[in-house]
Amino acid sequence: MHLINVDITTQGSLAIATLDDLNIRSTDDQDPNIFKIGHEGVRNEGLFFYAQNNLNVRNLDIQGNVDDIYMEAKTIDLTNVTFPAMSAVLLRSQTGEMSFDGEAYKDLGVNFRNVRHLGIPGAALPHERLIRSHFDGKKSIQKTSSGRPRIEVQGTGN
Question: How far apart are CA 121 and CA 102, in angstroms?
Answer without folding.
Answer: 20
